Amino acid sequence: MLNILIGLLFIDRGSRLNKTKNIKRYAFDNPERVKDKYGYINLFSKAYFLTGIISIILGLIITLDKLIIEVPLEIAILLVSLFIIFIISEVIIIKKKRYKFIQ
Predict the structure, then answer these.
(1) Contacts of 6 (CB under 8 A, 6+ apart)
(2) pTM for this one?
(3) Could you give the residue ranges of the DSSP H alpha helices within the chain?
(4) Where are the domains of the chain?
(5) What is the pLDDT of residues 1-53, one digit of tens each?
(6) Backbone angles phi, psi at 19, to 5 degrees
(7) Residue 96 contacts by C-beta under 8 Å, 6 or more apart in sequence?
């Protein structure tokens, strides 16, 4: 259940970043250093949406596992491993791409 709520929080944060364009509140870098604000906002809002969707999917699978079906241990370990690999790769990609938008 917690993963679903965290996923919804990430999606909400991404939509708020798109609507308000407030880099200081919803992104990580100093807004004065960002040279292409629209590209930077687009990158981080997509990252928030992807993280939220993956977190919701993982939360649904965990909830279904507890309540309705039993997922075998190997599949559960595989899903958690894929989730961790996805998060690490997303962090690496964003770290590389965000320097295009910073002076």
Answers:
(1) 52, 55, 59
(2) 0.76
(3) 2-20, 23-26, 37-67, 73-97
(4) 2-100
(5) 788 899 999 999 888 888 888 877 877 767 777 788 888 888 888 888 988 99
(6) -75, -45
(7) none
